[in-house]
Amino acid sequence: MKNRLKIFLSSFFVLCSLFFVFSFIVSPVLAVDKGLPGATDRLKTVEKGVYGTTGAKPFEEVVGGYIQGALALLGVIFLVLLVYGGYVWMTAHGNEEKVMTAKQLIIAAVIGLLIVVAAYAVTYYLLLKFGGLVQ
Taking the domains of the chain in order of start, what are their residue ranges? Predict the structure, then answer.
């Protein structure tokens, strides 16, 4: 049972890594090769960001980038918990204890996602209304 879970999680992370590599590294290069409009400009923008020729970023952008990264990480954690809960449920084979554990895991993941989205929405609204940081 634990070996199946390890194989499943390893496969999941490998597929996510391959998707990341393809979508962020290979995709812009293919867009330039196909001659899509604006592809060269986007690739130059990425190049400027990578080599640091864009200059210093304001504090708000840096903090916003960290918040965006944290939200993305929480989204991935939610997805992993949801998939794991479904996996436990599907492999329960009628065992009520495992089914209840899986249900509780899925419910906890959804509640956690709702809390994160609500916190983001409140923060965004308050910054928009009072802080003037969001445009």
Answer: 1-55, 57-135
